[in-house]
Amino acid sequence: MKIGELARKTGVSVRALRYYEEEGLISPGREGNGYRDFCDGSVEAVLQIRGMLDAGLPVRLIREVLPYLDGPEEVRPKVPCEYMIGEVARQREVLDRRIALMTRNRDALDAYLRDLTLTQT
Questions:
Q1: Is 3 within 8 Å of 36 (Cβ atoms)?
Q2: Fewer CB under 10 Å: which end of the chain, C or N?
Q3: Which domain holds residue 30?
């Protein structure tokens, strides 16, 4: 599929898709005329990337972690990098805090809606 179709299917701008490609997060094939040719799996990959970016993960970390999401264990580095281990652990803590905050906010909205529903009956 062409880049415009991928943009429509994912809700991600063409400009962002080109950036993901520049950063090595996605790698389309090329047609004879030079146009990018994305496979069907690109939709899920872009949605995963978007989700990770929305969660606050930096591109450099996404680039390292992305192969582990669906890939075989052979992609594991032979020698783990201490810096990367620390960075991944730190980002995981950030995500845990965000999840806790979002859960708290959702619970507050649920309580608000429950209260509104009870007062209207």
A1: yes
A2: C
A3: 1-76
pTM across the whole model: 0.70
Going from the C-alpha of 49 to that of each of 54, 56, 78, the distances in angstroms are 8, 11, 25
**Is the domain of 62 the same as that of 12?**
yes
CB neighbour list of residue 76: distance below 8 Å, 6 or more residues apart: 68
- Determine phi and psi for 36, rounding to 5 degrees: -65, 145
**13 and 67 fall within a common domain:** yes
Question: What are the tens digits of pLDDT across the range 88-107?
Answer: 899 899 989 999 999 999 99
CA distances from 21 to 28, 45, 99, 119 (A): 8, 12, 29, 52
For the cut 90, the answer to whether the pLDDT of residue 14 exceeds it is: yes
